[in-house]
User: Which sequence fits this backbone?
């Protein structure tokens, strides 16, 4: 027969485990918030300039000035390293090229005025892609990310290139995003991402991390379009929720971003693949 103390001790153990899990969740959230500093500045600036017009320059140009100053401060303060700045600059260029093409094809538009525009695309737009790279670099360092069963470079690089090119080619050819998504699952089926929170190591299937990040970017996209960062054709007259199907596009873009950052990290650190 169980003694009365046993149920109480089990209940106390369960309560302790729940408290530990809650504290770890808070720590994880705080790390994520710190890693999202650049995206937070972007959303704050979008909101501020939308509701409080600034003098002398168009809104798009003020956003460019703010983001340039923010980027300078992050490097100057040591929040980002010069190597991370190189990665972020690469994403800025990749994103700007995609923006120019997509606006030319009518996928979305930047209807407001601005002096610093290239083919109708304001230069600040590249920072929205760069902020994704900033988050990945910050989170990677803060959580001591480690890749487990990472595929060979000869597979990863062509896959990332194919995903990025499909954003362009599907306007002229068939859209192979679902084939590429299936390929990602096959290639990364055994891959995990390990990370540290409060001195405890955790791990997550890599494809699941792609989906989670892509979903949260879709939420961010809805906020950004509400704040008129850009507009889809169905949002010209009045704002409406971005179609849920866009999640798949963001997941694929996250995959490209993650593959580039991971490849550069592995090359820089000269970590042997496992």
Assistant:
């Amino acid at each position: 027969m169980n003694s009365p103390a046993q149920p109480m001790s089990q209940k106390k153990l369960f309560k302790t485990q729940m408290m530990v899990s809650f504290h770890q969740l808070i720590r994880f959230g705080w790390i994520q918030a710190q890693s999202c500093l650049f995206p937070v500045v972007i959303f704050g600036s979008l909101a501020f300039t939308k509701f409080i017009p600034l003098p002398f320059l168009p809104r798009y140009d003020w956003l460019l000035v703010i983001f340039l100053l923010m980027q300078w401060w992050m490097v100057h303060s040591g929040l980002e390293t010069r190597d991370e700045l190189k990665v972020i600059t690469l994403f800025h260029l990749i994103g700007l090229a995609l923006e120019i093409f997509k606006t030319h094809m009518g996928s979305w538009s930047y209807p407001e005025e601005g002096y610093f525009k290239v083919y109708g695309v304001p230069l600040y737009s590249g920072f929205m892609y760069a902020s994704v790279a900033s988050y990945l670099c910050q989170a990677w360092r803060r959580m001591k990310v480690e890749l487990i069963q990472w595929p060979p470079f000869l597979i990863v690089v062509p896959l990332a290139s194919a995903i990025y090119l499909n954003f362009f080619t599907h306007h002229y050819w068939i859209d192979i995003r679902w084939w590429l998504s299936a390929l990602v699952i096959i290639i990364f089926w055994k891959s995990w991402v390990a990370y540290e929170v409060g001195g405890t190591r955790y791990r997550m299937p890599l494809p699941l991390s792609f989906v989670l990040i892509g979903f949260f970017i879709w939420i961010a996209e809805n906020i950004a379009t509400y704040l008129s960062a850009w507009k889809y054709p169905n949002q010209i007259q009045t704002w409406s929720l971005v179609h849920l199907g866009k999640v798949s596009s963001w997941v694929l873009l996250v995959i490209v971003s993650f593959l580039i950052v991971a490849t550069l990290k592995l090359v820089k650190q000269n970590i042997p693949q496992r």
Notes: The mean pLDDT is 82. DSSP finds nine helices and five strands in the chain. The chain has one domain: 31-269.
